[in-house]
Write a structure and sequence with these properties.
Blueprint lengths: L2 H4 L3 H4 L1 E8 L2 E8 H13 L5 H16 L5 H14 L9 H6 L1
Antiparallel strand pairs: 1-2
Helix pairs in contact: 3-4, 3-5
Length: 101
């Protein structure tokens, strides 16, 4: 029953840390690779030239709306889920996914 989920390649959920500038300050964000991949699709769909530019703009907008960016990494994960849920992005399926479908 859960084979589709259990068979997920470990590389897709391995953590990856990237350095980024938010409001002029260097910081790092750690997300699983699958989330970085989805953020790249969201950034492209939203017309941004790069994921860091998208994240930086998003962070600034969150600060403007809320005054702080609480748990920003979780916010990024939720953005990925919302984008998938609302059909804003369609992640590319790899060979194994296509074979199983």
């Amino acid at each position: 029953m859960c084979h589709f989920f259990a068979n997920q390649p470990p590389e897709s959920y391995a953590s990856e840390t990237r350095s980024i500038r938010l409001n002029g300050q260097s910081t790092s964000i750690r997300l699983e690779k699958v989330f970085w991949d989805i953020l790249a699709l969201v950034a492209e769909q939203q017309g941004f030239s790069s994921v860091p530019r998208f994240i930086s703009t998003l962070h600034s907008e969150v600060l403007a709306l809320r005054g702080e960016a609480q748990n920003f990494t979780s916010h990024l994960r939720c953005i990925c889920l919302l984008a998938l849920e609302r059909g804003l992005v369609t992640p590319a399926r790899d060979e194994a996914d296509r074979a199983a479908a």
